[in-house]
Amino acid sequence: MIDGQGLDGAVSAAKNGADWGWTALYRALAPTITGYLRAQGAPEPEDVAAEVFIQAVKGIDRFTGDGTAFKSWIFCIAHNKLVDDIRKRRRRPVDLSPEAGRDIVHPANVEDQVMRNLADRQVRQIFSQLTADQRNVLYLRMIGGLTLEEVAKVLGKPSSAIKALQRRGLAAIKRDLTAQGYQVPHPSRLPAVGELT
Amino acid sequence: MNISDGDFDKVIKGQPASGAEAAEMARIMRRLNSAYVSPMGQATEARHLAAIQQANRSRKTGTTVSTGLTPLFGALRSFGGGMRRYGLALSGSTAVWAVVVAMFLVTATGGLAAAGVLPYPLQSAVSQAAESVGLEVPRPEAPVEDVTMSDPASGGVAVQESDLAAQQAALASAEQAIAAAEQAQKAAQEAAAITARCIEESMAQVSTLVDGILTASSPAQAQAIVAQARNIGGGVKSCADQAAAAGQTGVGRAGEATMLAQTAAQGAPALDDQGRSAVAAAEKAARTAATSAGSALQMSQSIVDNVTSLAASLVNSSLGLQQAATAAAPPPPAAGTPAPPAGGNFTNPGAWAGRGMDYANEIMRSFMGGAGRTRR
Q1: Suppose B236 and one of A174, B17, B24, B202 were both cysteines; which one would form an S-S bond, judging by CB atoms 3.0 to 4.6 Å apart?
Q2: Measured CA angle at A171 (ends A167, A176), to 5 deg
Q3: ipTM of the shown complex
Q4: Which of B19, B59, B80 sits opposite A187 (nearest CB)?
Q5: Is the pTM above the cut of 0.90?
Q6: Pairs across A and B, CB distance < 8 A
């Protein structure tokens, strides 16, 4: 997860028009922005992500803030672009469900690929049960790595509403896991989160 | 998932969190990222970076796609800079500013347009403008073509000598209609140009004024700002009146063109193909001119309404600013004591700054009031 504070120098350079600043920002943020767009069902997430960066280049003069603020800002651009895109596609209906997100091609062997795809499908299934608002919040938090306050800015809602959506989303995930017969293992049999790879 | 907000935050940050729920959430998060997030491919990254760097170069050199609205957007952007400094930021792209302008422009006739009672060209123009900002305004019914041009050949009507005068009159009317339509188009263009200039100039002046309010540090500067506010109020009103006058001229000439075209159409059945083509061209020119002039008039009327409101606000604010300047100025010297040197600073700068900020915000809100008053 990219920490916005690590982007301060790159943001400053980008504001001054240095190409290296944009390259650094792109390399740091493009994968997660693309991931967010892909999770939301954008048909060409990589190209939309490039458009998001180009829009950021055009608007950087109006941006003020550090790396953390830049991260929220660019996710805000991405989310707005996504909403516009969905609005346009409503006129030409296509499958917008998270299931429509394309499979990621991993450079592993076939068996590993199959197992990954199964796991990916399970997680997509879990999130597809959420409402669009809950998904927006949890995707921005879990893929984008944004804080509650940053998500509130991106979605234009109060932090309290974002917190409520997050809680309801997490409760829905638990319900879904329970319905599938999944039991959370006893803590003693689990490693601490920090030890997980 | 009975995970606390704090533990969920830790999971998001990849920090250790206790409990099975947190561990399970961490697993789901890893899986989610595995499903959707992957490094950009080398070719994709190279293509994207080339496009981004190209955009960056264009930004540095100030290259923009030339459109007729570019100067207007430039002014809007500079105005936006002023607004952001005073806590009235309207973040977003040029498109956002375009929306603000469009809302600003549709305000004056918004109520009538919402009722669908404007004349066809106005209703049509308002509908299109409103749709661009996501508002629903009834689209006008297209006017029924009330001119039919029968084919004289099918009716076997021979052109008689007595018809000659009527034919000549019809052609003359068509010619005059086209000339009037051309004048209407020119007036519409002039109204649009004045309207754009009016917005640009008033925004630049207001931006300068607001800058001045917040940077004034002496009674002399404050007095100059008060005078400036009054002058700007009068100036923008005059500019808006000119735009409205040009719009009125355009609509008047378009009306003439329409009447002449109708006169020409009455004589059209007696004309040959070439004559009827001329009449049809006149009718088309008159319709186009009516649409353009109607749209220009609507724009200029909106400007008059909004700018009048701004001018009133500036005059009102100047009174408040006058009081704030007096409150912040050094007290008058007591009898028998020497007068303080001219050009000294405020002894109570807080009194000016606090009220100055209020009035700066009021002026800004007044200027952007069109958006707030737009009706659905």
Answers
A1: B202
A2: 150
A3: 0.80
A4: B19
A5: no
A6: 161
